[in-house]
Amino acid sequence: MVHTLLIAAAAFGLALGTQKRPTLSEIRSARKAIYCESCPAGRLKVFADFHLEVEQANPALGSDYFPISDLAGKTITMSRWREETFRSGPRFKERVISYLPKNFKGSTPGTYDLTVCYNGVHSWKYRPIDRVSERFQGVTRVTQIVQDYFGDMIGSRIPVPSATMSRTVPTPSDAVYDIDQVVASDLYEVVGEEQIAGDPCTIIERQGADRIWLANAKNYIVVKREWRWTVGGPLKRRVLNSQFRIIGGGGWLPFSSRMEIFSHPSTPPERRVGILTAVVETADVEFPDSDFEPGFLKGTVVFDAETGTKSVTGSSEEELAVDEAKGMLKKVKVKMSVNNLAFQDEPWWRRHWLAALGAVLVISGAAYLLFRRRGVK
User: Is-contact 294 124, C-beta < 8 A?
Assistant: First the structure.
């Protein structure tokens, strides 16, 4: 009896040890049960705070990796920022709020606030501080996604009609970064299994270029990823995701992400030069379609590139006409004031100031002498 049990246990253990690894097709099907192409659970809203810690200067820390802003004529590499991203199919909205370094000197405000969005028909670019926005038909170069670093962390950037390059700047030219595109391509293969922080993972790889650990029991979300500068070259970045939670639709999402950045191949390779961390504040798949609209502050001037017209948020056409008339009247008054000042006669005392000064001195002297004589008597 004992002998039979031992044989059965050994057979069971052997079966576990030789359990078939999932194929790329099976991984894709499992992801599709929860995920759409580049879009978890069909819709996704994520508010995340980012912090960049530069450990040592290196060409790898250029704009290929991190956001920079030209503020007041100065280029600032951002070390802290916040991303608010909404996605659903081709529709998107992204708001980036960056916090300037404490030692920044200048008249520029302490934050840089930019929103780009596309509701399926029109797209906008909007900075609240300017109270000016531009509206376009479709997506243009100025309204395409500017960052979406959290998308890089999970390997699922916001899809846009006008494709934008991932901050990963993939090489070679036929490389793909989006996980759904990865598992649908013939560039990768399943190469192994490994547990990371208690999560059984399937490892897929594009040999010598990209190695990805996907969590088996969590819709094959990215747990770890190692991306190289070139095929067979040194590491470019390593992503480690953790604190996974279930969001709407049963999909999993990491609420903490860490990206290690490694030195440029032209310098000593495999040297870590910076760490980018992301902490998710909120994530959800249920939000109204109105969130894909820009949401202007009252008084914002919106230029419509399609029709060549403009409108002011919170103002009717009649109010806008009145405001324009007031503006024109103010300009006329200012011009008249300037003209009056330019052509009016100069005061006599300004033209004859020297004579006036002499007269004052003579009168003052005479008064002084008269006072002295009276004092002597």
Answer: yes
Q: CA 279 to CA 253: how far, in whole Å?
A: 12
The structural domain count of the chain equals 1
pLDDT in tens, 156-181: 888 765 444 455 555 566 778 889 98
In a domain, 146, yes or no: yes
Assigned domain for 364 exists: no
Q: CA neighbours within 13 Å on the CB side: how many for 102?
A: 0
Q: What is the mean pLDDT of residues 200-207?
A: 97
**pLDDT-based confidence at 129, cuts 50/70/90?**
confident
**Which CATH number fits the domain that encloses residue 52?**
2.50.20
**Short-list 291, 294, 216, CA closest to 44:** 291
Q: What span, in angstroms and rounded, lies between the C-alpha atoms of 140 and 188?
A: 33
Asked if residue 355 belongs to a domain, the reply is no
> Alpha-carbon distance 368 to 274, whole Å?
82
Looking at residue 100, its pLDDT comes to 72
Indicate the pTM of the whole model.
0.75
CA pseudo-torsion sign 351, 354, 359, 361:
positive
Q: Partners of 124 in the beta sheet?
A: 117, 135
| ∠ CA 293-295-296, rounded to 5° | 135
The answer to which of 27-31, 201-205, 277-281, 323-327 has the lowest mean pLDDT is: 323-327
CA 195 to CA 112: how far, in whole Å?
41
63 — alpha (psi -120 to 50), left (phi > 0) or beta?
alpha
Q: 100 and 127 in contact (C-beta within 8 Å)?
A: no
Q: Given a cut of 90, is residue 193 above it in pLDDT?
A: yes
No. of H helices and E strands in the chain?
7, 19
Q: Where are the alpha helices (DSSP H) in the chain?
A: 2-17, 24-32, 149-154, 179-184, 317-343, 348-351, 353-376
Alpha-carbon distance 50 to 65, whole Å?
A: 13
